[in-house]
Amino acid sequence: MKNRFAPVVAILSVFGFLAWIAYGAQTDSSAVGAEGSQPASTPAFSNDEPFLRERMGGSAIPCAVPVAWRIARVDETFGLSRSEARAALTQAALLWEEAVGTGLFSNEQDGELSVRLVSDDRQELRRLELELNETRASFEARRTGLDEMSRRNDATQSQYEGALGDLSRRVTSLNDTIRQWNAQGGAPAEAQARLVTSRDLLDAERAELTAQGQEADELRQELRNEFERLDQEVELHRREADVLLAASPERNLESGTYREAVHIQDGAVTSVTREIRIYRFDGPQDLVLVAAHELGHALGLGHNALPGGIMRAEFAQADLVQGAAGVQPGDVEVLRSLCPDL
Fold it and tell me: Under CATH, to which class is 6-125+253-338 assigned?
């Protein structure tokens, strides 16, 4: 299964500088232990026997149901108990069985399909991915807040300029009145008192508007400085990512893989060794979906492009949030076309 988070796959590549544990190289020495009496390690084959190969296109012997699965390994770093892992796999199997309307899987202590939750670099890379996303979200939130403050300040500035224009017109009108009285030899005492009061009010209003204008100017400069600081941080962040990207190859971070080895004797299939490895997931619901995807490979299905389909090579995070990801009618249709007897 490929990286399910298409929007961040390019960003993830910048963390390829981490020591990469080669696919399938994990041993089961760090596992919690195998279910039942089965060994936790991958079965060993002699030179003339097949070995486990990843099959994104689905099992080489599709429709061989029911598929018996077992929990063979749960690394402690996941913080997941064996019973919790088994419950997640059971839910994943039910997604298929409820959609198809028949039994497709069984949980057996000696099941041929071993399920391993394996801890490697992917968990650390996922953590770094989340930190990177949080940093980007923080930048976007800050810019949104600054944009809103800038719009409010522009509105305040516009109101200030309008009030200042109105004040200027009233001051001009008052000065015209004073000149008219002066031309007539001076205003009577009562009129003169009104003129003085009007002048004092206009002076007070001018002082208040001047203070408002200064505040708007200071805020505008402060916002300009904040925008510059934000741009510098974003640019520094981008440069660091570019340096890491240039120093490391791009890697697709798989959430899980399905592998199998088909045993043939005298031209006939004698047995099949199957394995699901799950490397990363974001919470219980995501684990169920990752497991359901890999179980789909065990049924014989390859990747498809059905919107919200469980067999998509990549899930969009929005599908998970909206609950849209899962076994879709299109997934069932593809399975029935492959396995008409179901």
Answer: alpha beta
Query: What's the 3-state SS for 298-309?
Result: HHCCCCECCCCE
Provide the residue ranges of all domains of the chain, joining segments of one domain with +: 6-125+253-338, 141-247
CB 258 within 8 A of CB 274: yes
Instruction: Say how many C-beta atoms besides its own lie within 10 A of residue 237's C-beta.
Output: 14
Tokens read off for 13: 């590549």
* HSE-CB of 180 using CA atoms within 13 angstroms: 8
pLDDT band at 25 (very low <50, low <70, confident <90, very high): very low
pLDDT of 132 = 73
Among 118, 137, 147, 106, CA closest to 32? 118
Query: Do 69 and 310 contact (CB within 8 A), yes or no?
Result: no
- Tens-digit pLDDT profile for residues 185-231: 888 999 999 999 999 999 999 999 999 999 999 999 999 999 999 99
What mean pLDDT is reported for the chain? 79
Q: Which two tokens stand for residue 110?
A: 């000696």
C-alpha distances in Å from residue 268, one per residue of 47, 75, 211, 239: 19, 36, 92, 57
From the number of C-beta atoms within 10 Å of its C-beta (0-12, 13-18, 19+), residue 14 rates as buried
The two structure tokens encoding residue 262: 């088909």
